[in-house]
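so im writing up the methods section and need the beta-N-acetylhexosaminidase record in one place, dumping it here so i stop losing it
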Amino acid sequence: AGAPMRLQLNTDESYALSIGSNSAGQVTANITANNFFGARHGLETLSQLIVYDDIRREVQVVANASIADAPFYKWRGLLLDTSRNYYSVKAIKRTL
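--- predicted struct ---
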């Protein structure tokens, strides 16, 4: 009974991300998760902490951080932005 291969209602999507740097300026990131789904969320969070500075022509990374996160609810929400996008009634009913 290994980690789930499919995302289900009770899948544990939690993760912990720790970022540290040493005196030489090297940055190390460590993601700990119980399965692929948590690790994927950790990688997405890490990607949001990295930016390329076009002016300095360098990659900038947060030097020190500690994040522990998990979805608050077990289910996902859905947003249909009907004020800026046209959806036919048939498409809305199909989605619901």
